[in-house]
Write a structure and sequence with these properties.
Layout (H helix, E strand, L loop, with lengths): L3 H8 L20 H6 L5 H13 L6 E7 L5 H11 L4 H13 L1 H7 L3 E4 L4 H7 L3 H13 L8 E3 L11 H8 L3 E3 L9 E9 L3 H12 L4 E9 L2
Parallel strand pairs: 1-6, 2-5, 5-6
Antiparallel strand pairs: 3-4
Helix pairs in contact: 5-8
């Protein structure tokens, strides 16, 4: 029997953003072959990244990530489609994978609130959505923790950090975030979500503001880490 998905795929075929091949009816957003090609982050690498980016500042109590970001590879194509081609459901798909794989870790952290790193309102208006919000919603669906997007606010427009070094990134985000509804984070454990973490400057700045305003602990997770 022909399924509804197969009928839709006949008229509006779906394609994998990584390899551009047509998806089968039972394949969701990205083909399994491309997912399998994306390099996972080892526990040793995760510990190294935590020590390098977060341990000394002590704003982040724990960190995890799913993949390594490699240029001109499958994940770059997926993330690009998510951020720039209106494929926001890819974020939810990746968030669900992150949530499923690290569910026991997140439960051990006793997370009360999941919070995406916010975009400035001008950037959000330009893009139409915050890609990290959809990743956060995917994670929340996996282990049923509420996502809150109206508490942490980016109050200053910041330049793209792609070409910046560590000190420039830190300066770029310094003072860029504020808190609304302080009472909602008091004594709460918060999981911060971003798509890709490079130096950790943005995450550290967000965590500092949350802790300064009463959060108990702040943890972080991302789809990928980049050098």
């Amino acid at each position: 029997m022909t399924t509804v998905t197969e009928i839709f795929d006949f008229f509006l075929p779906r394609f994998c953003p990584a390899c551009k091949q047509k998806l089968a009816a039972d394949e969701k957003y990205v083909c399994p072959e491309c997912i399998d090609k994306i390099q996972r982050v080892s526990s040793v690498r995760l510990q190294f990244e935590f020590n390098k980016k977060f341990a000394a500042k002590k704003f982040i109590s724990g960190y995890t990530s799913l993949y390594l970001f490699e240029k001109d590879k499958e994940l770059q194509n997926i993330i690009h489609a998510l951020k720039y081609n209106q494929k926001f459901l890819y974020g939810k798909f990746l968030g669900e994978k992150l949530g499923e794989i690290f569910r026991s870790l997140f439960e051990g952290w006793e997370i009360d609130i999941i919070m995406p790193v916010p975009l400035h309102h001008l950037k959000k208006a330009e893009r139409g959505y915050n890609q990290s919000s959809f990743i956060a919603k995917g994670i929340g669906k996996s282990f049923r923790v509420n996502v809150r997007e109206n508490i942490l606010k980016r109050n200053r427009f910041t330049q793209s950090q792609t070409t910046m070094n560590i000190s420039e990134r830190k300066e770029n985000v310094s003072g860029a975030f504020t808190i609304r509804h302080h009472e909602k984070i008091a004594k709460k454990n918060i999981l911060l979500i971003d798509d890709i973490i490079t130096t950790g400057s943005t995450i550290n700045e967000c965590a500092k503001v949350l802790l300064d305003n009463g959060a108990a602990k702040v943890y972080a997770a991302s789809i990928a880490i980049a050098d």
